[in-house]
Amino acid sequence: MTDTTELVTAAAGADPADGLRAVAALRRLLEHLEAAQVRNAREQGWPWQRIAVELGVTRQAVHKKHRRS
Amino acid sequence: MFEKFSRRTVRAVHTAVRTAQQDDSPTIEEEHLLFGILSEAGPVSRRVLGSRITPEALREAFARARRRGDLSETDMAALRRMGIDVRSATAALEWRDEPRRARPRRRFGGGHRPFSPDSKRALSGAVAEAREMGARRIEDVHVLLAVLRGGGLASGVLTDLGLDYQAVRRALGGG
Questions:
Q1: Total structural domains within chain A
Q2: pLDDT greater than 90 at residue B146
Q3: Rounded to whole angstroms, how far apart are CA atoms B75 and B153?
């Protein structure tokens, strides 16, 4: 609750430079988290189809993006 | 596009390509452009870069950021000010130690190494920076300014080391 309030306050009053940098940073972080999570799932024997369902994308999309990692 | 680049800038780009090769990086990143600029620096760029930005300091700062999922100290501070704490997520990445770069993709014939989207933006941004400052040629400092303005990982790393866009513009006397 407090966290949400703080987040909203911060987002509303923040310096745009901070806000935009934070968004760009999250986007990069997201790519790494996705790669790490997909790798983990594959190592645990998850099929591409099940990973795709959890990520909310098609099997082809997740396979194309992550098959090499 | 390269015809208006100064000789020094062209040399810096060549060095960037070689550095990417040595790093076994599949693309030429902004990071490599910075190493190129640093190693070919002339009096102006040397003065702008100051004494804190050395190849060793850059390497270390990029390595640290990479272990954290490509987040610089500057990025972490911006996230904190937005009320976003990503420390546990990045700690999980550090623990996994990202094998991504350890396994470069090798191409048959192996010659061509493309610029990453960020470094492409930096090179075309340098043209805009030079124009804005009324410069005749695109100098290495214009590439540096474009990297800083780009807001990517490299700009955050430079900010960690005490360099930002306004500081460079001031040092160049361009306000």
A1: 1
A2: yes
A3: 8
| pLDDT number for residue A29 | 93
What architecture is the B2-63+114-171 domain classified under in CATH? Orthogonal Bundle (1.10)
Q: What is the mean pLDDT of residues B28-47?
A: 96
A25 contacts in B (CB within 8 Å)? 70-72, 75-76, 78-79, 156
**Residue of B74, B90, B100 lying closest to A69 (CB–CB):** B100
Annotated domain spans of chain B: 2-63+114-171
* Residue A39 main-chain phi, psi, to 5 deg: -60, -45
Is B156–A18 a contact, with Cβ atoms under 8 angstroms apart? no
Q: How far apart are CA A39 and CA A66, in angstroms?
A: 8
Both structure tokens of B111: 């010659």
Give, in order, the Cα–Cα distances in Å from B17 to each of B38, B49, B88: 14, 21, 35
Looking at chain A, which residue has its C-alpha nearest residue B71? Answer: A25
Task: Indicate whether this complex's ipTM tops 0.85.
Answer: no
Closest CA to B138 of B1, B14, B36, B9: B9
